[in-house]
Amino acid sequence: MFICHHCDNKSCARPSHLYLGTHKENMRDMRVREGNIRKITRAQAAAIRDDKRTQRAIAADYGVHQATVWNIKSGRTHYDGDTR
Q1: Helical (H) or strand (E) element with 70
Q2: Residues 50, 53, 54, CA angle at the centre, nearest 5°?
Q3: Residue 10: strand pairing partners
């Protein structure tokens, strides 16, 4: 079993961001978050970075996981979406 992170921040120890899972579950979760990034355009990513609302509210509006919003806002995600 692994201690997995919903937020993909390896130094995060916030209990609500951690879950116990298998390697297979962790890889599936990672693919879901990567798939969410591909749904976001460059213009949307810029708007997400500037949005002052909670990450949860932003994620709900864009139909993505909260970790996707965190990755965009923190600069952890190298955004490769389309140019719209």
Answers
A1: helix 66-74
A2: 120
A3: none
Phi, psi of 63 (to 5 degrees): 70, 35
| Domain ranges (residues) in the chain | 2-74
Query: pTM of the full predicted structure?
Result: 0.55
Q: Which long-range contacts (CB under 8 A, 24 or more apart) does 3-12 make?
A: 4/29, 6/65, 6/66, 6/67, 7/66, 7/67, 7/70, 8/33, 8/67, 8/70, 8/71, 8/76, 9/70, 9/74, 9/76
Residues 44/55, Cβ–Cβ less than 8 Å = no
Q: For 32-76, how does the pLDDT look when each residue is reduced to its tens digit (9 = 90+)?
A: 776 666 678 888 999 999 999 999 999 889 888 888 888 899 887
